[in-house]
Amino acid sequence: MKKTLQQHLASDGTPKRILSLDGGGIRGALTLGYLKKIETILQEKYGKDYLLCDHFDLIGGTSTGSIIAAALAVGKTVDEIKTLYMELGGKIFGKKRSFWRPWETVKYLKAEYDYKALEDSLRQEFGDTTLGSDQLKTGLCIVAKRADTNSVWPLINHPNGRFYDSADGKNKDIKLWQAIRASSAAPTYFAPQMIDVGDGQRAAFVDGGVSMANNPALILLMVATLNGFPFHWPLSEDKITLVSVGTGYNVFKKHVAEIEKAWVKTWASTVPDMLMQDASWQNQIILQWLSNSPIAHYIDMEIGSLRDDYVAGKPMLKYLRYNFPITVNELNNLGFGKKFTEKDVESLIEMSNAHNREELYKIGEKAAKEKVKEEHFVLKALK
User: Fold this and answer.
1) What value does the mean pLDDT take over residues 270-296?
2) C-beta separation of 68 from 59 below 8 A
3) Roughly what angle, to the nearest 10 degrees, separates helices 28-46 and 357-371?
4) pLDDT for 109
5) CB distance 240 to 183 below 8 Å
6) What is the pTM assigned to this prediction?
7) Triad 295, 70, 247: Cα angle to 5°
8) Is 202 exposed, middle or buried (0-12, 13-18, 19+ CB in 10 A)?
9) pLDDT tens for each residue of 53-73
């Protein structure tokens, strides 16, 4: 059942599987709860040594999703990544800079958290492994945003990529930790990441979530199938399966009076989340429009779930989207044996609350128990 990297990447007409992981700060712990269930289903079917990097031919992520994606691509189990993630989350978001310390004031004005803790942890975990390393066991795509050109960069490990090893770029030499750090450099949280992208050119990267690709599912499908990218995988329901996992999301329910009285500062803190959610839902609408999803989400009263509403009259891929609405009702329905409140919801939604990481993992685990089904992964088209 195990494939070589070349077999994963090959455009040979065999069915291909893509795993897409959202950004969301410390809420990536919730993603791991879903991934644990998927891994368990696959191991019960194919054996205990079967890993997600064996099953998926392309694994990609944005921001916190890029950390998990890279760890999966080098062959780590979900339990191993959970251990890493819990330790990493405490270090990264454990302590904000102090505005009142003169020696930190200038740095604080650039970013709230010290990026050194993130860099040190990523260096320790991934060492000198590069995007071109043979330590990567499957296709990998790390989505970052190049701030100096305002362009989204899908950093991939396919040797035929235009920027992999050519006069246009030497992405194969980019250290994995640098690529992850670039994808995770959320403005206000961390300072931008500078990377030499070849020919002596320095590029400034910020979090890939500062784009339409915080949910990177659609861009991963484009990377896998468009002519401009090197994969060239056939686009059809029996050839492409796309599994997309979120980090949980907030459900807006403001009173009109709150909006009417909102101040500039209120909008400044609310707009980024609104835009990220809009981008994610737009991804979801397009992918449900293209696909035959057995778990299609209800979008709204006009378009419903787009079931049987295919772009070309037939489904072009199989699509599975797992995400959890972080609301009081949904949390209390999970059966934790405790009463969640609106205050708990506010705390869980905040992407830098590291003390929530264990609880977020358990939320993902419980949600996955209900939503992730064996038949999603062991149908004939996936064997």
Assistant:
1) 84
2) no
3) 40
4) 39
5) no
6) 0.89
7) 40
8) exposed
9) 999 999 999 999 999 999 999
User: Cα 333 to chain center, whole Å?
Assistant: 26
User: In terms of residues, how long is the chain?
Assistant: 383
3-state secondary structure of 45: helix
What pLDDT score was predicted for residue 307? 83
Angle between helices 342-349 and 357-371 (to 10 degrees): 100
Phi and psi of 236, rounded to 5°?
A: -160, 160
Single-letter residue type at 269: S
Nearest to 58 by CA among 280, 227, 222, 174: 222
CA distances from 176 to 22, 62, 276 (A): 18, 14, 25
| Residue type present at position 113 | Y
pLDDT for 381 equals 42
Judged by DSSP in three states, 279 sits in helix
Whole-number average pLDDT of the chain? 86
Q: Side-chain half-sphere of 68: how many Cα atoms within 13 Å?
A: 34
- Compute the distance between CA of residue 278 and CA of residue 330 in angstroms, rounded to an integer: 21
Report the amino acid identity of residue 157: N
Q: Which residues of 70-90 are buried (b: 16+ CB within 10 A; e: fewer)?
A: bbbbbebbbeebbebbbebbb
* CA distances (Å), origin 87, targets 71, 90, 91, 284: 14, 5, 7, 32
Query: C-alpha 214: how far from its chain's center?
Result: 7
Q: What is the DSSP string of 213-227?
A: TSS-HHHHHHHHHST
Q: Which residues are catalytic?
A: 63, 207
- Of 84, 85, 172, nearest to 135 by C-alpha is 172
> How do strand 318-322 and strand 193-196 relate by DSSP bridges?
unpaired
